[in-house]
């Protein structure tokens, strides 16, 4: 069988892999002898929008492939950098590291504004595919996490995802994570009914002391039990720095004077990616404090924090999959954790 390209690339989160994705994958297999499936949102904690690890998504997709095609497909996990240039470079490096191909096809369809990433690879040939009706992964997740009657969910899912994926999802419900994600999904729906979908303004604090950084364990959904930066929503008449210090004290009990924290402020960065938070459009201002102390101040979780803890910076990279939303990447911005 002759092919138009040496390699075809398919990029997505596939949370989960549905029949529309299957059409794109079939086209990629038709166009090239080798297919690279880029699995976005890799290495992050499970949440209602990203319930499946990249390994689980790879297993789902692989289960749909006939034996003749299985060896032609490779999976490339790529984390969410919330930085277009870094993300693009990571995708390109993942593809180049596995194939020296010169004729590369990028298979995709322009669903909405989130599909702008298709334009970031000018050296590849974009093969545009039509939308497959109204099918999208958001609707599939809502069925999987939101229906009270499993039998009804199973019957509906079999019309939306390949049969091996439907079987995978049914078995996946036995995992301990399923019940918590269903509860988080319901909590997010109630949260949006009460507060809307933004935009919201929040503040976060990256506090660095003696090679450690101060983290809190989230007490409430979304992200219950995950590690996060001390922070929260800005009050109506607060300045940003004032709000960051207030949230820092409320959640950790850090007993340092305002003047000490003002003098220790190393930088402020805005994180405004539209998809950074499940709660809606949330723009945060992260404040980096570098405090010159040899001993770690006492802290204790309070308010919205179940725990507060000083964590060695050297241990943060191994904790990536246990962080709330993009907080690992906020730390990465200030501390260069991923290189």
TrEMBL record:
Name of the protein described by the UniProt record: Bifunctional nicotinamide-nucleotide adenylyltransferase/Nudix hydroxylase
PANTHER family: BIFUNCTIONAL NMN ADENYLYLTRANSFERASE_NUDIX HYDROLASE, PHOSPHOPANTETHEINE ADENYLYLTRANSFERASE
Transmembrane stretches, start-end: none
Source taxonomy: Bacteria, Pseudomonadati, Pseudomonadota, Betaproteobacteria, Neisseriales
Cofactor(s) listed in the protein's UniProt record: Mg(2+)
Nucleotidyltransferase recorded as keyword: yes
Keywords: Hydrolase, Nucleotidyltransferase, Transferase
GO molecular function, one term: nucleotidyltransferase activity
Entry annotated with the keyword Translocase: no
SUPFAM superfamilies tied to this protein: Nucleotidylyl transferase (SSF52374), Nudix (SSF55811)
Record-annotated Nudix hydrolase domain positions: 198-334
